[in-house]
Amino acid sequence: MNSQDSTTNFPRVVIIGGGFGGIQLSKKLRDKEVQVLMLDRHNYHTFQPLLYQVATGGLEADSIAFPLRKIFKGQSNFLFRNAEVQSIIPERKVISTSIGEISYDYLVVATGSDTNFFGSKELEHYTMPMKTIPESLNLRSMILQNLEESLIEKDPIRKSALLNFVITGGGPTGVELAGSIAELKRHVLKKDYPELDMNEMNIYLVEGSPVLLGPMSKQSQEHARKFLEELGVIVLTDTRVSSYDGDKIVLSNNQEIATKNVLWSAGVKGEVPEGIPMDRIVRGGRIKVDHFNRIDGYDDIFAIGDVAAMSTEDYPNGHPGVAPAAMQQGQHLANNLIKIINKEEPEPFKYKDKGSMATIGRNRAVVDVGKIRFQGVFAWFVWMFVHLMSLVGFRNRLVVLVNWIWSYFSYDRGTRLIIRPFNRESMTEDTANK
Amino acid sequence: MNSQDSTTNFPRVVIIGGGFGGIQLSKKLRDKEVQVLMLDRHNYHTFQPLLYQVATGGLEADSIAFPLRKIFKGQSNFLFRNAEVQSIIPERKVISTSIGEISYDYLVVATGSDTNFFGSKELEHYTMPMKTIPESLNLRSMILQNLEESLIEKDPIRKSALLNFVITGGGPTGVELAGSIAELKRHVLKKDYPELDMNEMNIYLVEGSPVLLGPMSKQSQEHARKFLEELGVIVLTDTRVSSYDGDKIVLSNNQEIATKNVLWSAGVKGEVPEGIPMDRIVRGGRIKVDHFNRIDGYDDIFAIGDVAAMSTEDYPNGHPGVAPAAMQQGQHLANNLIKIINKEEPEPFKYKDKGSMATIGRNRAVVDVGKIRFQGVFAWFVWMFVHLMSLVGFRNRLVVLVNWIWSYFSYDRGTRLIIRPFNRESMTEDTANK
């Protein structure tokens, strides 16, 4: 590693992943007596909460991504390497990567989560996940390609399959995607495809449990459902996917829907690197950590964010897989690492719940903050403000704001482009999931 | 074709290509008694003059592209099909396409131009062209990937090959690309890669003729060269590429440069569909047309823009391959088509030269308008204004303006992201050239 040229005698903290947790951790270690080495397979940070707007043509991909090197510009104890981690070898205190072996004094796993197909190869092959920017661009291309194809399809069942959308999972991602596609249909597609009868396009949201937005208040859950139904989404709760062969989805209520568009947002699992013993993996594929984010059995390997499960009284299965939890753990771990290096006692992590929110469409959002709940127009503005302020980079905020204002007044989406046509058959592991 | 459902008894004008010419032609045919059917392999119009800013991280791809369907929203005699044309069959008045056969009454070839490697398979395989959005995104990814790789490369020759850039062709594209990469090096890379010695990065611009910007005034040619040299670009005129094997380029002056980054902007050729007789193809692979843009030997097949060569007194080899020429031909042909349909005499095309310009970098541009020539800051503002106003769509103008203002004050580029890693070996015909 060249990076060692610029190494001082400071201990090296290697951070795998430039998500919300990894970034906060690295920032907090600025000016501290450590060398920080961050690895990520992308050279940018992804603002995942807005991926659904990239997928549905509302935002350009570049405005929700930010170059990792730029975040740490001028931070002299920080190094970045664009690399893929292959495995952790704790015995030798090294990780094996696509650019060679890298040694660590302290290792932090901040790899986040990936789509969970619950072991189904069929679902993994035929449905569309949306956890990365390339995936959301594939989704955008597929939606638009299927609409184009529906124009020249004569067979009524195949045509209907091209026009039907099934979104699985009633969490924030599923709800936001379903709402966004419903608005696309209502305001944009009608004008873009005057030849199509928009009544032939159906949007289904399928959720296994009895409610949408599980962890939110009853009030917000009911409003979300109402908002979606106002937009014409067919909401099917208490319903699961039984099978899907790429043309027809079968649901647990025996309903069959011809569809080429199944968007999979029904589950996530921790993205655990090889080398972490299997017995440390708990529910949701997360790594069990103690109250200091330390992985059981190691005193120099930590995990934060979505990939970590810290069992506490309030959160026996770990904290929610949301950005604020990852950010707080990153900041907290930075302080603890310095304490550990200085042989002081680390402090246990305490999660401050900042509330949760989801947007369904124009003027339609739901917000829970502690005991305060509100829905509708004001909630929608709050949602936009919070997301805008959470974006990294002034340019990104400006570009997203311009797009939102423009869309608000024009009822339009700016970026419905098939930049790279999606072709399921030519997808490789490399292009599909990264 | 479903499209025939909405057909009236109007004659059908089929337009191949949604570039500057095709768009103007279709717009001018609005409210006329014809059915317009446009085909394009992309669902968007590309503003090619700004591709180099996408390639060098200054603009998001989506801001220089515009959905074709949206341009013609509400134009009731217009249909769009996202399809690839395979061949023209004039005997039967049909074209064969990826979505089946389509019949025409009048056919307009507005396919533009593609990169000309002058028959060299080696150059086609190893150098990077930049005529489409996917190509400019590949170029962006390649530049950034090679920089990342140079950080971990120990062999000095291989490292130097990763850092050296050779741009071929001293036309506007080559000049703008070279200037843009030089500014990237000067203002951005120095901060992003503090580990790299920026003196190791060399940028060469290689041009076969004795001057840059061939068709422009001597004054502008000399200023362009001076501006580039001020930015540190090594300008080699009277120099051609002898060979390139992917690692080392050999020039006609016997100079050898180790480089993995060869950007090919040394030539274009008309993109002629199959079925046009070979004897109609002239210099630059363009189709010979008469003064009414009619292809010799046909009274119902026309060609406009880059792909057409109309020999006139002032332009014996055809008009310059620039947007204004294509736009003027498109508008003119619309009027002539109506005349022809009404059995009136068509009028010969007359090109109005609006001048030419090129930008080298911040505050550095050259402009020729008739006898008026100016260079420097004012020229740069004129260049920006003209390009901004030529972009299709208010949202695009706004987003580009925001990016330009932000870059002006921050000396930064917003979008240096490797969204889809470039991998030469896995490139197929499909992903590489479209």
Automatic annotation (TrEMBL), chains A, B:
Domain named FAD/NAD(P)-binding: which ranges? Answer: 12-330
Keywords recorded for this protein, A-Z: FAD, Flavoprotein, Membrane, NAD, Oxidoreductase, Transit peptide, Transmembrane, Transmembrane helix
- This enzyme's EC code(s): 1.6.5.9
For this protein, the record's Pfam families field holds: NDH2_C (PF22366), Pyr_redox_2 (PF07992)
Q: Which family does it belong to?
A: Belongs to the NADH dehydrogenase family.
* One MF annotation (Gene Ontology) recorded for this entry: NADH dehydrogenase (quinone) (non-electrogenic) activity
Report the InterPro entries cross-referenced here: FAD/NAD-bd_sf, FAD/NAD-binding_dom, NDH-2, NDH2-like_C
Question: Which residue ranges does the record assign to the External alternative NADH-ubiquinone oxidoreductase-like C-terminal domain?
Answer: 354-408
Please name the PANTHER family in this protein's record: EXTERNAL NADH-UBIQUINONE OXIDOREDUCTASE 1, MITOCHONDRIAL-RELATED, NADH DEHYDROGENASE
Q: Which reaction is this enzyme known to catalyze?
A: a quinone + NADH + H(+) = a quinol + NAD(+)
Lineage runs: Bacteria, Pseudomonadati, Bacteroidota, Sphingobacteriia, Sphingobacteriales
Q: Give the species this sequence originates from.
A: Arcticibacter pallidicorallinus
Q: Which domain of life is it from?
A: Bacteria
TM region positions? 377-394
Keyword set includes Oxidoreductase:
yes
Give the protein's recorded name. Answer: NADH:ubiquinone reductase (non-electrogenic)
